[in-house]
Amino acid sequence: MTSAENKARMAGIMQALSEGDGRPFVAAMAEDFAWMICGNTHWSGLYQGRDTVQRELLAPLFAQFADRYRNTAHRILADGDFVVVECTGRVMTKTGKPYNNSYCYVIRMQGGMMKQLTEYLDTALVDSALEPPRIPA
């Protein structure tokens, strides 16, 4: 796919996410999708495989949210298979703490699917607002 096609694909995914609909984001993960969270938090590290991402990252993360998570893109840049998204997420945790983080995602696309995502974020906010991940049984 071209840079423009990859940018448009991510723009549509991020538009849905800004409205609280994460289904297009999850649907765009390739089966061998890898998500790397930078930093030294309990959440940092490499999550390898779509099923692992859903089970070990997304499920325990979203279990901490009191309401619908929204993430709004402010800038989307694309160069070939790479798309960079600057965005801001907003949600309240069940413990009453706001988790309004700023992100920069560097995403490698292949055939319209996300193959790899590297996430840069405010790690101090992660440590102050989120509990360590608890992987559901």
What does this structure look like?
By secondary structure, the protein is an alpha+beta fold. The protein has one domain (3-126): Nuclear Transport Factor 2, Chain: A, CATH 3.10.450.50. It has helices spanning 3-18, 23-27, 50-62, 123-129; strands at 29-37, 45-48, 70-79, 82-90, 102-110, 113-121. A 6-stranded mixed sheet has the order 2-1-6-5-4-3. The protein is globular and about 45 Å long. The model has no long low-confidence stretch (mean pLDDT 96).
Radius of gyration: 14 Å
**Overall mean pLDDT score?**
96
Give the beta-strand count. 6
Shape: globular
In what order do the strands lie side by side in the largest sheet? Answer: 2-1-6-5-4-3
The number of helical elements comes to 4
Instruction: Tell me the major beta sheet.
Output: 6 strands, mixed
Number of domains: 1
CATH architecture: Roll
Q: In which range does the helix fraction lie? A: 25-40%
Output the keywords.
about 35% strand, about 140 residues, 6-stranded mixed sheet, globular, Nuclear Transport Factor 2, Chain: A, alpha+beta
Question: What is the strand and helix layout of this fold?
Answer:
Elements: H1 3-18, H2 23-27, E1 29-37, E2 45-48, H3 50-62, E3 70-79, E4 82-90, E5 102-110, E6 113-121, H4 123-129
Parallel strand pairs: 1-6
Antiparallel strand pairs: 1-2, 3-4, 4-5, 5-6
In short:
With 137 residues, this protein is of the alpha+beta class. It is built from four helices and six strands; from the N terminus they run H-H-E-E-H-E-E-E-E-H.
